[in-house]
């Protein structure tokens, strides 16, 4: 176990080192404390939910592995989230899909109501958390055709439109009850495996369906909509109806959020390059931090170059106030609680690293065309003691420092997860 004295001593040395280049670590830690990461609930149960036990995943989604301890009830999932949140510094949000109902009623997606999620709201109040929400437009008999909001069948479209309308009201319920805005994020897996003849009609139907869903005005203090595009997925390799361009333009013209997911682009694209362009015009972003390996495979987030670039772009361009940061990955080959902790802590670490830089001085050097200083200083920063500042942040938040959290998860696994 890392001693408190050791952490504080290292922090004071790091604080002095950063102060020499004009970085106030106390100010940075105060800023980091205000950031809320939206932690996705579906890592804990492999995206199955509690509405239709035994329902198989469809819509291009697949979860690998069968690690013991998967949550099979809402209470188990909340207990697992409690354990993860106990090991993550800061106060955050939890992101629910609509299939995570907590009710004894037999309810379908087109009949869900706020009361079916009341236990989640009560839990969030007790823990001081916010809640975000997602309509679930996959893994359902009404998606068997491979299309939802863009279907040629009006009955199918109407089913999903009603579902999404109800989700907006549930999201508003979350926001009103918890006193913080809830993001209602819409993603659909509609598309074709092989080349379609008609590419515009499905998008016309999707646009009309979304307009119908958003027709009723809801107080944005409680909820705001986001639309999430995708490049490809299993079964829709040739054409995705809700593409990057479609949703970017839809969000711009409807004054809602655009969701950008790190896994939904070509492997050679760097999504951090897109933030500063879009936010010159758009209302804001919903960011899904994920890790693709050759494709949108939703691996647990690690401190790789892509994550570091994402954090730098948000911090250096002052985009944090207009960006909702969430996670989206699922891995059943490892302890699911550990996956949450690793991914969330890494996201926060990357943001801290980005903040621990003399950004104004670097911009001044750039504006003066002193590219030598810009390059030299950014390279030197890579060996600065950011880890000592992170350890101190964990200590301040009463969460385990360094790898000490692993022992906590091991104990939880042996005492709780293995017994399920």
UniProtKB/TrEMBL annotation:
<keyword id="KW-0413">Isomerase</keyword>
<comment type="function">
    <text>Catalyzes the interconversion of L-rhamnose and L-rhamnulose.</text>
</comment>
<keyword id="KW-0684">Rhamnose metabolism</keyword>
<dbReference type="InterPro" id="IPR009308">
    <property type="entry name" value="Rhamnose_isomerase"/>
</dbReference>
<keyword id="KW-0464">Manganese</keyword>
<protein>
    <recommendedName>
        <fullName>L-rhamnose isomerase</fullName>
        <ecNumber>5.3.1.14</ecNumber>
    </recommendedName>
</protein>
<feature type="binding site">
    <location>
        <position position="264"/>
    </location>
    <ligand>
        <name>Mn(2+)</name>
    </ligand>
</feature>
<dbReference type="InterPro" id="IPR036237">
    <property type="entry name" value="Xyl_isomerase-like_sf"/>
</dbReference>
<feature type="binding site">
    <location>
        <position position="298"/>
    </location>
    <ligand>
        <name>Mn(2+)</name>
    </ligand>
</feature>
<dbReference type="Pfam" id="PF06134">
    <property type="entry name" value="RhaA"/>
</dbReference>
<comment type="pathway">
    <text>Carbohydrate degradation; L-rhamnose degradation; glycerone phosphate from L-rhamnose: step 1/3.</text>
</comment>
<keyword id="KW-0963">Cytoplasm</keyword>
<dbReference type="GO" id="GO:0008740">
    <property type="term" value="F:L-rhamnose isomerase activity"/>
</dbReference>
<comment type="similarity">
    <text>Belongs to the rhamnose isomerase family.</text>
</comment>
<dbReference type="InterPro" id="IPR050337">
    <property type="entry name" value="L-rhamnose_isomerase"/>
</dbReference>
<feature type="binding site">
    <location>
        <position position="296"/>
    </location>
    <ligand>
        <name>Mn(2+)</name>
    </ligand>
</feature>
<keyword id="KW-0479">Metal-binding</keyword>
């Amino acid at each position: 176990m890392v001693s408190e004295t050791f952490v504080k001593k290292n922090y004071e040395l790091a604080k002095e080192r950063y102060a020499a280049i004009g970085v106030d670590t106390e100010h940075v830690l105060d800023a980091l404390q205000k950031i809320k990461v939206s932690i996705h609930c579906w890592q804990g149960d492999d995206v199955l939910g509690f509405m239709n036990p035994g329902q198989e995943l469809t819509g291009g989604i697949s979860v690998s592995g069968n690690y013991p301890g998967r949550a099979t009830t809402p209470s188990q999932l909340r207990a697992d989230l409690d354990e993860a949140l106990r090991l993550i510094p800061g106060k955050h949000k939890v992101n629910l899909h609509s299939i995570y109902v907590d009710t004894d009623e037999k309810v379908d997606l087109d009949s869900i109501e706020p009361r079916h999620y009341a236990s989640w709201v009560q839990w969030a109040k007790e823990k001081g958390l916010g809640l975000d929400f997602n309509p679930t437009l996959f893994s359902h008999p009404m998606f068997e055709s491979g299309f939802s909001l863009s279907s040629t069948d009006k009955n199918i479209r109407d089913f999903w439109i009603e579902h999404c309308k109800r989700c907006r009201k549930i999201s508003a319920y979350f926001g009103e009850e918890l006193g913080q805005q809830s993001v209602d994020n819409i993603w659909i897996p509609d598309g074709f495996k092989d080349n379609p003849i008609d590419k515009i009609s499905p998008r016309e139907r999707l646009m009309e369906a979304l307009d119908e869903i958003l027709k009723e005005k809801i107080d944005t203090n409680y909820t705001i909509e986001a639309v999430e595009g995708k490049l490809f997925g299993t079964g829709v390799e040739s054409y995705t109806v809700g593409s990057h361009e479609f949703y970017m333009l839809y969000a711009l013209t409807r004054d809602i959020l655009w969701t950008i997911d790190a896994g939904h682009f070509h492997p050679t694209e760097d999504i951090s390059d897109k933030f500063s362009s879009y936010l010159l015009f758009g209302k804001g972003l919903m960011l899904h931090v994920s890790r693709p390996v050759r494709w949108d495979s939703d691996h647990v987030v690690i401190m790789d170059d892509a994550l570091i670039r994402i954090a730098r772009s948000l911090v250096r361009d002052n985009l944090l106030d207009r960006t909702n940061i969430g996670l989206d990955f699922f891995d059943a080959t490892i302890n699911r609680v550990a996956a949450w902790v690793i991914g969330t802590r890494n996201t926060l670490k990357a943001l801290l690293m980005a903040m621990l830089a003399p950004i104004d001085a670097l911009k001044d050097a750039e504006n003066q065309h002193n590219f030598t200083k810009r390059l030299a200083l950014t390279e030197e920063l890579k060996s600065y003691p950011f880890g000592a500042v992170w350890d101190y942040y964990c200590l301040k938040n009463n969460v385990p420092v360094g790898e000490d959290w692993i022992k906590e998860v091991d104990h939880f696994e042996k005492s709780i997860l293995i017994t399920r």
